[in-house]
Every structure is written in structure tokens, then in C-alpha cells.
Design goal:
Blueprint (H helix, E strand, L loop, with lengths): L2 H10 L7 H13 L6 E4 L8 H8 L8 E5 L8 H6 L15 H5 L4 E5 L6 H13 L1 E2 L8 E2 L3 E6 L3 H6 L5 H7 L2 E4 L9 H17 L5 E2 L1 H9 L5 H15 L4 E2 L1 H5 L22 H39 L23 H11 L13 H15 L4 H8 L3 H10 L6
Parallel strand pairs: 1-6, 1-7, 2-3, 3-6, 8-9
Antiparallel strand pairs: 4-5
Helix pairs in contact: 2-3, 6-8, 9-11, 13-15, 15-16, 16-17
Amino acid sequence: MNNSELQSIKQRYSIVGNCEALNHALDVALQVAPTDLSVLIVGESGVGKEIIPRVIHDNSPRRREKYFAINCGSIPEGTIDSELFGHVKGSFTGAINDSPGYFGVANKGTLFLDEVGELPLATQARLLRVLETGEYIPVGGTEIRKTNVRIVAATNVNIQRAISEGRFREDLFYRLNSIPIQMPPLRERGEDIVLLFRLFAMQMAEKYRMDKVVLTDEAKQMLMRYKWPGNVRQLKNITEQISILSPERQITAELLARFIPQDQETTQLATIRSDSDRSFENEREILYKILFELRSNVNDMRREISTLKRQIEDVQGTGSHLATTPNVPTIPTIPTMSPAAVTSTMEEAEAEEYIEPAPEVENLNVNDWSRQALEKALQRNAGNRKKAAQELGISDRTLYRRLKQYGLDNI
């Protein structure tokens, strides 16, 4: 598209600015207009995304058909399916007549779905079917209807994040994103900011019959350095405030600073939120809690194994004469293990580790020693289980489990 065509489009739709990103967005819109491909316009709130679908429709073969702009975020979730796809009489309370919905009324025309990221998941599934087959079923109906509608969607939502959080269907995103158009934020448009300020100031002067406000060079630089989280909409509001409230018509940097907010808001794309406020931060907190509990259990088991090893060593020390007894093997030691192997090793230690006694030696295996240690600890502490557990260096939970295992829970 040459420069004269571009300027003609800007004049027709009152588009102000010459930045490269804006010119590219308009160029893509004009190239895709003659086709029926779906278009997804992405940009922050207030950048003027609503201009692009109008340009596409007016320069397409559908320009003589109907054009509807629908803000999906302003329609209640309970009625949005009925608004878009229609309903049959009696399908719900208040449905006193059949309704064709926007897809029925806009047949052969263009639908602009603004804030498409706010659609409920069930409605997203219906929209995907319309995009793929041109078919839909009204709410409460059984008859399949067909429509030939061109879809242009827009969102200020971070779609990739919404997909990762399960709030937006990935297949619908790729279906809508046949032709992506990125609208630049105002902070990246350079001198366009000053041009827009001049336009809004002129409109205010003509509307209210007042002198137009003008900016000094320092004020212009301040205007272009500001982040403009509200983009063009915010710039227009501030220009109107200055035009009405400022006693001076020449705006200096000091005067302009009174109208520009000091708490600059974030300029990131918005994220989708719902009443449940679901996010993966909650899942991460749950996982962290589980991991901490597992680590605590592993530490308990490590202490239990250490206590068991000390008991074995004590028995070996008191019964060292067994080591000189013929055919009596040395008591094996328990090697250091990773946390993942702790549970299985404990069971094997309890079930399999033992000492083959000589005929004249009393049969004492690890379970017997552990049981004796528990009994002695309880006797020394007059049956106080908490003190016995502290003496043995194990948790109360582990002590109760051992008592039940050895049949000592009635002590």
C-alpha cells in the first residue's frame, strides 16, 4: 500500500499518527480485508483496536452487509450464549419468542467480538464450531442452523497465559489467529502522542468555544516520556482535564505534571480473572505444602533409623562376646540411604535383618531389641509415652506406631 492510500484511510477513519507499527497494522488490515480469514487484534486497553475491524469490513466484499460490534465482557455469562447464538421460545424464563442471535442476524456480514478473552469456556466451544463448520444450535433448540459470518476478534488479555491457566481454548486461539494484528501501545508511538494531544485540544476548543491549549517543548518531552498505561483513552482524558481546569493556555512541564498521575500503572497485558480467581499460584502453594510434609516424614524416618542403629550398636557393645562365638555372624550395619529409598529400606530392615544365634545363645533379632528398648523406656518414664519418645529420639507418631506393632499399645 502506497503512502497516498494510507493517508486516505487515516483521513476516512480519523486516525492520527505516523509510527511504523500503526502503519503496519493498517496495511495488514487492508490486505486481509478481501478474504474471509479470521483476524485476531491484540493490544492493550485503550489503543484503538475497534478501528481495525471497521476498516476490514468496509474494504471487504461484505461491506454492504451488516456489521455488529459486540463487547463479550459486558454480556452476563448466563445470557451470552443466547445473545450470540439465539434461543427458541420457552428455552428459559423470559424466552417468550424465538431469537436468531447475532450469528443469525449478521449472516453474510461481519461480527467484531471485542474482549473475546472474556468468553466462558462453554461459549468458546460453540464459537469454535461456528468458525470451523458455520453451524450452531440455538439455546434450547435441536435444529442445526448455518451462518456465513466473518469473525474479527480483539483482546487485551495475555492469551498465552490464559491458555496455560486453562481459561482459553488453545484450538480456538489458533482458529481466531489466522491473521494476527498487533496494535502498538501509545508509549511506543513517539511523536504521535503530541499529535493526538493537539487533536484532542482542538476538539475541546471547538466544542466549548475556548482557546486551545498548547504545549511547550519541555512539556512535549514529558508527554512522550510518560508510560500511558491507559493509552489513547487516558491521553484524551488528560487533555480534556487540562483544557477545562488549567487557567493557562500555554502548558509548561510544571503545569503538565499536575495532571499526569505519579503512580504509573502497569503496562503489561491484562490477565483473565473469574469469580473463582483460579490461578496456578494456589496449586503451587499446595504442592509446596505437600513437599514440606513429605520432607518432615522423611526426617522422622531418618531419625528412627539412626535410633535403631544406635540400639543395634548398644546391643553389639553389651554382647560383644557373641562376635567370638563360632558360627555367629557379625551384625550388619545399615548404610546411609537416599530419602526415596527410606520407606522400603525400613520395611526390609524390620522384616529381613536378623542374627543367627548359636544354639546356646538366646534368639534376639532387631524387632526384639526394639521392643525391649521401648519397654525399658516406658518403664523408666513411668509409662509417659511423650517422655519415652523424647528419650528414644523419635516422634510421638512413630512411638505410637511401634507400640501398636509390638502389641504394647495397652501399656
